[in-house]
Write a structure and sequence with these properties.
74% of the residues lie in helices and 0% in strands. It is mostly helical.
Length: 164
């Protein structure tokens, strides 16, 4: 389903985070993942985009869908996943993630994003009116003020390399 224009800013941020997950997964699979630079990049993307993204979802999106019984369970799961992901981001900031934890982080984040895109956003577009989605869009515009508009460039140690 085509994404409603009011949810596109969140979807663009999801793309940035998924790119991080793909690069991290490939580096781990290649045996080429040094935890230090990955944790630095994870911390940077959290500070510049994801912290604000989570707050916007929690302040604007989740309360707006709370009265839709079809979306209640998924929203509760997503709130719990935000807490789990915040713990991963905190651990990255403290530089305590090893390779298995980095793998778990990438899997958790990508799964969370896919759940939001495929279940929450699709459900919102199915059950909410154009006016309700527009109200969410206006709220997100305010809530996301200050978020990075550009995809962060990976550092030399975390950039995607051609497969050998």
């Amino acid at each position: 389903m085509l994404r409603d224009k009011n949810l596109v800013p969140l979807s663009h941020q999801h793309q940035h985070a998924l790119a991080l997950c793909v690069r991290l997964d490939r580096a781990i699979q290649a045996g080429d993942a040094d935890p230090e630079p990955w944790q630095a990049e994870i911390t940077q993307i959290f500070d510049q985009e994801i912290a604000l993204h989570f707050r916007a979802e929690e302040a604007v999106v989740f309360p707006s869908v709370a009265h839709f019984p079809e979306l209640k369970t998924i929203t509760q799961e997503l709130v719990q996943e935000h807490a789990i992901l915040r713990d991963f981001f905190s651990r990255a900031g403290l530089r305590t993630l090893d390779i298995p934890a980095l793998r778990a982080f990438a899997n958790t984040l990508s799964s969370h994003i896919r759940k939001e895109e495929r279940q929450l956003f699709e459900g919102m577009q199915k059950f909410m009116s154009t006016g309700e989605l527009s109200t969410i869009g206006k709220g997100l515009e305010k809530a996301l003020t200050g978020a990075s508009e550009a995809c962060l460039l990976p550092n030399e140690a975390t950039r995607l390399r051609p497969r050998r």
